[in-house]
């Protein structure tokens, strides 16, 4: 999807994917080092970044859409927290290495070669002991049509993530079908792949 597409979506009155954090992130966030520095990739309107800031983390939210990050800052202000934001094309933007206690990528769907590159850079951005938290739609999602890219080329198998995060210790990696209620665009039974992985200390 183009930058213009996302800017238009994020200008809609309602938050496209809601104002609450992703369920999987909420489930595993206890693995993030306390008061850690967290990078949120393809963060859109900031629901995950703001929640992590509320949990005491120092958060950088990155997205290609300026409109999304403006809403993220508004959401942070309404919740009494501060986040940092950066407009960047994830096809090209490389985070600094050894800099984050966690990298969070929730529904950050890119074409396979670019996704692999983003995930490699995400793993390299972790400090020793840092964790990667990822949730993406699998090809089975095409049967449910309840959110995510409508083309198989942008969807992900568990083995893709195993390979792309092979430098980390994989703590959790599975495909599951779960109910997702995230705003107007992620709503209903959904097929997802979830990963929690850790860089060795």
UniProtKB/TrEMBL annotation:
<keyword id="KW-0489">Methyltransferase</keyword>
<dbReference type="GO" id="GO:0008168">
    <property type="term" value="F:methyltransferase activity"/>
</dbReference>
<dbReference type="Pfam" id="PF13649">
    <property type="entry name" value="Methyltransf_25"/>
</dbReference>
<feature type="domain" description="Methyltransferase">
    <location>
        <begin position="38"/>
        <end position="130"/>
    </location>
</feature>
<keyword id="KW-0808">Transferase</keyword>
<dbReference type="InterPro" id="IPR041698">
    <property type="entry name" value="Methyltransf_25"/>
</dbReference>
<dbReference type="GO" id="GO:0032259">
    <property type="term" value="P:methylation"/>
</dbReference>
<dbReference type="InterPro" id="IPR029063">
    <property type="entry name" value="SAM-dependent_MTases_sf"/>
</dbReference>
<protein>
    <submittedName>
        <fullName>Methyltransferase domain-containing protein</fullName>
    </submittedName>
</protein>
């Amino acid at each position: 999807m183009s930058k213009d597409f996302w800017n238009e979506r994020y200008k809609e009155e309602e938050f496209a994917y809601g104002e609450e954090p992703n369920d999987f992130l909420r489930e595993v966030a206890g693995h993030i080092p306390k008061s850690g520095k967290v990078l949120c990739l393809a963060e859109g309107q900031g629901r995950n970044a703001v929640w992590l800031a509320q949990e005491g983390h120092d958060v950088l939210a990155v997205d290609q859409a300026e409109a999304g990050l403006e809403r993220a800052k508004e959401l942070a202000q309404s919740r009494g927290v501060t986040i940092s934001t950066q407009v960047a094309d994830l096809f090209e933007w490389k985070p600094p290495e050894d800099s984050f206690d966690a990298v969070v990528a929730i529904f950050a769907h890119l074409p396979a070669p670019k996704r692999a590159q983003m995930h490699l850079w995400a793993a390299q951005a972790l400090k020793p002991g840092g964790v990667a938290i990822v949730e993406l739609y699998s090809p089975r999602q095409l049967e449910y049509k309840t959110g995510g890219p409508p083309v198989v080329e942008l969807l992900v198998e568990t083995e893709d993530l195993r390979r792309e995060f092979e430098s980390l210790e994989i703590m959790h990696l599975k495909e599951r079908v779960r109910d997702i209620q995230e705003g107007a665009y992620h709503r209903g039974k959904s097929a997802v792949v979830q990963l929690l992985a850790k860089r060795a200390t």
